[in-house]
Each structure stands twice: as structure tokens, then as C-alpha cells.
Specification:
The structure holds 2 protein chains of 2 kinds. By secondary structure, chain A is α+β, with helices and mostly antiparallel strands. Chain A has helices at about 5-15, 100-105, 120-130, 155-175, 190-230, 235-240, 245-270, 275, 280, 285-310, 315-340, 350-360, 360-380, 385, and strands at about 25-35, 40-50, 55-65, 70-80, 85-90, 110-115. The chains are: A alpha+beta, B alpha+beta. Chains A and B meet through helix 5, helix 6, helix 7, helix 10 and helix 13 of A and helix 1 and helix 2 of B.
Chain lengths: ~400, ~300
């Protein structure tokens, strides 16, 4: 064996090249058998049989006769001269209506193997023992009986397993246990479709995880509101002559001014990730404006919503944590609840009804809005390929 | 996982073939934006209306209407718990001088209204037990928690209405210095809250400088507040302001004219040197010690 290419050549000849010679059907003759009636099924042990035209005798450790679309005999551990050739081989028994006839069929008539290509390694073996002149290259009798197992969840597993198999072949052919085959993996780049699809899916996650800090933000604004009330500072201001509407408008306007900074910072984060990773959110002018409108509008409605919730608290730390929790429930959890309920057909209507309630919660609107953007991006570029 | 994505991307039957909709289309994010902007003002005005209903002096006609609604709800609640006019007459026996003062006030009510700077006539405040949904919900949790820890649950005392002020009557003339003393829970804080227009009394009348502070008349509280200088028992300080800023703010609120602000700031400086805060008048109240806060 000079190089690996020769090895591949011989393998291909074994399996492909001999097929012409095996076009004919072979008659299987059973020579001897022992019965074992201990179990209910008919078990044959120490089976000996041969393919008539070849005149080569085989042994099988055991065999079963079973009914599956007609009676069939299944042979296990087929050997020749003590060497394992195949694990299993199934031969149909034609014309047998019951078990007795099937047993008779084995010994009185010779069974015919129809299409020999069905019989795997026995077929390969037959190819290898055909008269030498029918083979164009030398064949190796040592057809290894190898099972390669691989994990289907990873893409590279098949090729890695195949590499192991080839290395094993190489070792057994060269007789050198230290022999190594080194293979290098050059994966193909993602296709345009796969790239966009991945981007859309990741953007859904990005929307969900952007929603979490969005739930925290309004809670920071109400600390001062609650503090001002619990220290009676607001009461003192009112007694000193501040109008209630003026107080709240001033508070709201100041918080909106702070929120503008927050919006700027959030959009900055989107831009830091660039128009490639965050293409869904800041890829073109329209989606950028949409994200900006969602982020800023969230502040406009979330701040008064937080003021409403903060009315129930006297302690600013409790208020902050509780408002944070309530925004988390009304935002992050509500978005998830909606999509989880959608996945059950019987709850689909419930999900759509609940959505009217969810609409009243600012955090839900911003989370679902961002996911809508991702879905829109997906519709624009990907779904054509998926539908057809 | 497949089902998750199909839920997100295909939960509606839509015609998608290179969808060229705008991002602001109602099917995309338009509805969300509409709701976000549409909800902002309703929520804000809900906050303002709720605040109007809690404070005696604000909101004009709307505020007064809201307070009437709130008070009638409170009255229905109190009636449910058995607090009626008859209940309020069952007072403990009064000391002789207290009874005498009460009689005097009731007799000369109309004259005193204009003469006395503060007049309180048979003031009652009964708080109904709290009915907050959130509080009740948390209460159930606490009960469950105590149950799990095998601890005795405390008897709920909050189920009864709480009598804070029982038939207080007094008159304070101009120039008087009046000390309102009492044991814990006697109703001192509630009386002050009524006089500053923060709380609405269950029954009775209260006048400051001749103006009604119970919120029944329009503008009464606002006018009365112009004559009130108030210092609550907790230090009502904003921690992120300096001492000078605090005084300047209240000065402006009290109506110091803008052309006198310079002399006002000189005044503040002198004032700080009198009370011994001149060195820390520009530091944040956050950094003040416990001793310095009440001084301010």
C-alpha cells in the first residue's frame, strides 16, 4: 500500500466494480442445522449454508424464523472459516403459509436470494471471492466490520467519524498502530439565506434581553418620587404654595429629559454593535427610526405608569424593587406568556384575548415591538425561501 | 425549538413574499408605537387626578369633585364598619377645662371664625381599615409564610376603623403660642395634617386665618396655606440639595420678589451664621449629620 489513494481505489472496486458479476440471483442451500425449541420462536443454531453457484460454504451462529410480510429467516453472525463476514442477513421464504411450511421450505427447496445488493457485507464478500479475473485490482479480504457512531446534533460529527474510520483502515492496511491520517476541515461559509435567518433569530433573543434592562430603567426614576413623599418634602412644598399640576408636570418633564439621555445611550449601544450585528434594529433609516420611536415612547408611557405603581409604597427601596418586579412581569414575562400560549392550539384564542390586556402595559409593547421588527426583517428576506 | 421559531415567525397567516411593508406599518411595530405614545398622557393625567383626590388644596373644581367622591366612598366604608353620627357621640368623659373650652367654641363659633387665627370645632377623624388590594395580597403571603414556619399569626388589628381625632375643639388667637400635647396615637399628627389641608376630616370644621381648610369651599385651603408656616416632625429635606438651595427654593415658593433675591441671599447667609451652619451651607444635605438636619 503506497498511498491512501490506492486504498480508496480498491474499496470502490470492491463495492461498485463487481456489481455486474453479481447481477444474477443466487440459490441458498442449507446443509445442516440444529433446532432449539426452548423458546417459543423457532431458533436454529449452528446453521451451515452455501450459495449454490459459488460453492462456498458459510456458517451462522444462530437463526430465527419469523413472520414479517411473509416468512423470513434471519441469520446472525455469518462466518466463513471462522472469520466474521456479516452481522445479519435476512432471506425470504416464498410460498410458506405457516411455520411448518416455512421449515420445510428451508430444507426441501433451495431459497433464492433475489437482489444480492440488499445483503450488505455478504454481498461485498461475495464480490471479493469471485474468480480473480473479474476483478481489475487486487482486493483485500480484510473487509473490516466497523460501526461508526456519531452524534447527529453536531454538523462535523459525520466527517469526524469518517476520518476515524479511514484512519482505522489505514492502520490495518499498513499494519502500523502508530499510523496517523491528518485531515483538515475547511467549512463552507454561511449562505446568504442562512446568514439572514441566523440574524433574525438572534435578534429575537436580543429583543428579549434588551427588554430586561428596559424593565429596570423606570424603577430608577421613582426613587425620588417616593422619597419626596415619605420625607413629607412634597407636603411641605404644597403647603408653601406649589400647585399640584405644576409639581407633576415638572417631575414628568425632568424625567423625560433624563429619558432622552437613556434613549441616546441605548441607541448608542445598538450602534456599537454595528449595522451588521444589529441590522434588524439600526440597519436602515426606517428601522432605526422605529427603534428610536419605541425606546422613547416607552419612556413616555412607562414613567407615568411607574408613578401610578409608586403611589402604593412609602419606602423607596421597596418601591424600586417592587416596581422593577412589576415591570418585569408586565414586560418580559408577558411577552413570553404570549408566545408560549400561542404554541398550544387550544390556547391560541386566549393568547389573542390576553394581548388586549397586555397592550396596556408599556413594557409589553416595547418588547413585542422589538420582536415585531425582527419578524419584519425575517419576512422581508427569509420567508420566501422557507415557503417554497 | 422549531416550534418556538415558528410561533414567533409564523403565528399569523400572512402573505409574505419579499415583504416590503414599512416598519411603522400597524402589522409590524406601528400598533406598539401607537399604544406607547397614546398611553402616556392618560397615565399621566390619572396620576394627577389621583393626587388631586388626596390633597385638600389642589385641582380646583375637578379636585373638589374627586375629593367629594373619595370622601363619600370613605363614609360608606365607615358606615359598613359601624361608624355613624351616633357612634361619634359616645365619647369618653372629658376633663372640666376641656369641656368648658368645647362649649365656649361651640357657642361663639361664628364670631371666632374671623377673630381666631386657628379655630377647630368638634373635629373628628376616623380612618377606615386599609383596603388596598396589594396589601391584602401580601397579607395572605405573610400568613402562609407564618403557617409554614409554624408561627402564630398576629391578630389583625387593622380590621377595625381607627379613631385618630375624637371631637377636638379649640381656638387659638393671634399672638398665642399653642402647644398641642398628647400621648402616642392621641391624634396630634392627624390634627396637623387636617390643618394643612393634607387630610380630610370625617366631620367637624377647621379654620386657619378665617379660611376653611377642610376642602369644602373653593380656594379655602390655598388661601389658608398662605398663612401657614409648617415644619413636619420628619426632616422634610431633599438630600441632593445644599442648605442654601433649600432655603432659596422655599423663599421663592413663599413669594420673595425677584428683585430682592440678592438681599434675601445675604439674609440667608446671616441666618446660617446665627444657627451655626455657615461652614456647611454649600454641602449637600446628604452629607449632613443627624444634629444639623433639624436645625435646617
Amino acid at each position: 500500500m503506497n498511498n491512501v489513494a490506492d486504498l480508496f481505489a480498491s474499496i470502490s472496486v470492491q463495492t461498485g466494480g463487481s456489481a455486474e458479476d453479481l447481477d444474477a440471483t443466487y440459490r441458498v442451500v442449507f446443509h445442516s442445522v440444529r433446532f432449539d425449541f426452548v423458546t417459543e420462536t423457532v431458533r436454529l443454531i449452528d446453521v451451515s449454508f452455501s450459495f449454490e453457484d459459488l460453492g462456498v460454504q458459510f456458517e451462522a451462529d444462530e437463526a430465527f424464523i419469523a413472520y414479517q410480510d411473509g416468512f423470513k429467516i434471519t441469520l446472525f453472525n455469518i462466518k466463513r472459516d471462522g472469520r466474521l463476514i456479516s452481522d445479519e442477513m435476512v432471506i425470504p421464504i416464498p410460498g410458506a403459509n405457516d411455520l411448518e411450511q416455512a421449515l420445510e421450505g428451508i430444507f426441501l427447496t433451495d431459497l433464492t436470494v433475489g437482489d444480492p445488493t440488499e445483503y450488505g457485507s455478504v454481498y461485498n464478500y461475495i464480490a471479493s471471492i469471485l474468480p480473480e479475473e473479474s476483478n481489475t485490482t487486487a482486493t483485500y479480504e480484510a473487509t473490516p466490520n466497523v460501526t461508526v457512531m456519531f452524534n447527529t446534533s453536531s454538523f462535523h460529527a459525520i466527517s469526524a467519524g469518517y476520518q476515524g474510520y479511514i484512519e482505522y483502515l489505514y492502520k490495518s492496511c499498513t499494519g502500523n498502530a502508530e499510523a496517523r491520517l491528518i485531515s483538515t476541515n475547511y467549512p463552507l461559509p454561511l449562505t446568504e439565506q442562512a446568514n439572514i435567518q441566523l440574524k433574525a433569530q438572534l435578534s429575537v433573543f436580543a429583543s428579549l434581553f434588551t427588554l430586561i434592562p428596559f424593565c429596570y430603567a423606570p424603577a430608577a426614576f421613582i426613587i425620588y418620587i417616593v422619597k419626596e413623599r415619605s420625607t413629607k418634602s412634597k407636603h411641605l412644598q404644597l403647603v408653601s404654595g406649589v400647585d399640584m399640576l405644576a409639581f407633576w408636570v415638572a417631575t414628568y418633564l425632568w424625567d423625560i429629559a433624563m429619558w432622552i439621555i437613556f434613549t441616546g445611550l441605548s441607541m448608542g449601544v445598538f450602534f456599537i454593535y454595528g449595522s451588521n450585528s444589529a441590522e434588524v434594529f439600526v440597519g436602515d433609516t426606517e428601522s432605526f427610526l422605529c427603534t428610536l420611536a419605541l425606546t422613547f415612547g416607552y419612556g413616555l408611557s412607562a414613567l407615568p405608569f411607574a408613578y401610578l405603581l409608586a403611589r402604593n409604597f412609602d419606602n423607596h427601596t421597596t418601591a424600586q424593587i417592587s416596581v422593577l418586579g412589576l415591570f418585569f412581569v408586565t414586560g418580559f414575562i408577558a411577552v413570553l406568556v404570549y408566545f408560549v400560549l400561542l404554541s398550544f392550539p387550544e390556547f391560541r384564542q386566549l393568547a389573542k384575548d390576553l394581548r388586549h390586556l397586555f397592550r396596556l402595559w408599556p413594557a409589553y409593547n416595547v418588547g413585542d415591538g422589538l420582536i415585531s421588527l425582527a419578524r419584519h426583517f425575517f419576512d422581508k428576506y427569509v420567508s420566501i425561501f422557507l415557503y417554497f | 425549538m422549531v416550534s418556538f421559531w415558528s410561533n414567533i415567525f409564523f403565528h399569523e397567516k400572512r402573505e409574505v413574499l419579499g415583504d416590503e411593508k414599512s416598519a411603522f406599518h400597524p402589522d409590524v411595530a406601528g400598533t406598539h408605537i401607537k399604544w406607547l405614545y397614546g398611553l402616556s398622557l392618560p397615565y399621566f393625567f390619572l396620576v394627577v387626578l389621583l393626587e388631586y383626590s388626596g390633597d385638600g388644596g389642589s385641582g380646583g373644581i375637578i379636585g373638589r369633585a374627586l375629593r367629594i367622591v373619595k370622601n363619600s366612598i370613605e363614609k360608606v366604608q365607615l358606615r359598613y364598619y359601624g361608624v355613624t353620627a351616633a357612634y361619634r357621640t359616645q365619647t369618653d368623659e372629658l376633663d372640666a377645662d376641656v369641656a368648658q373650652e368645647k362649649e365656649f367654641v361651640l357657642e361663639h363659633k361664628d364670631e371666632l371664625k374671623t377673630e381666631a387665627s386657628v379655630l377647630i370645632v368638634d373635629l373628628w377623624k376616623v380612618f377606615p381599615p386599609p383596603t388596598s388590594v396589594l396589601g391584602r395580597f401580601l397579607g395572605y403571603f405573610r400568613k402562609l409564610w407564618n403557617c409554614l414556619r409554624k408561627q402564630q399569626t398576629q391578630e389583625e388589628t387593622s380590621k377595625k376603623p381607627k379613631k385618630a381625632v375624637q371631637g377636638l375643639s379649640t381656638q387659638i388667637m393671634a399672638g398665642d403660642t399653642f402647644g398641642l400635647l398628647g400621648v402616642n396615637g392621641a391624634g396630634k399628627t392627624t390634627t396637623m395634617a387636617v390643618l394643612t389641608g393634607d387630610t380630610h376630616p370625617t366631620s367637624g370644621e377647621a379654620y386657619v386665618a378665617g379660611y376653611d381648610v377642610t376642602g369644602r369651599t373653593s380656594g379655602g385651603v390655598i388661601e389658608a396655606r398662605k398663612h401657614i408656616g409648617f415644619c413636619p416632625q420628619i426632616d422634610p429635606l431633599l438630600e441632593l440639595m445644599t442648605a442654601r438651595e433649600t432655603l432659596t427654593m422655599y423663599g421663592k415658593l413663599r413669594g420673595v420678589p425677584s428683585n430682592q433675591l440678592v438681599s434675601f441671599s445675604v439674609c440667608i447667609k446671616q441666618f446660617f451664621s446665627i444657627i451655626g451652619l455657615q461652614l456647611i451651607r454649600l454641602t449637600y444635605i446628604l452629607n449632613f449629620s443627624i444634629l444639623h438636619r433639624p436645625k435646617l
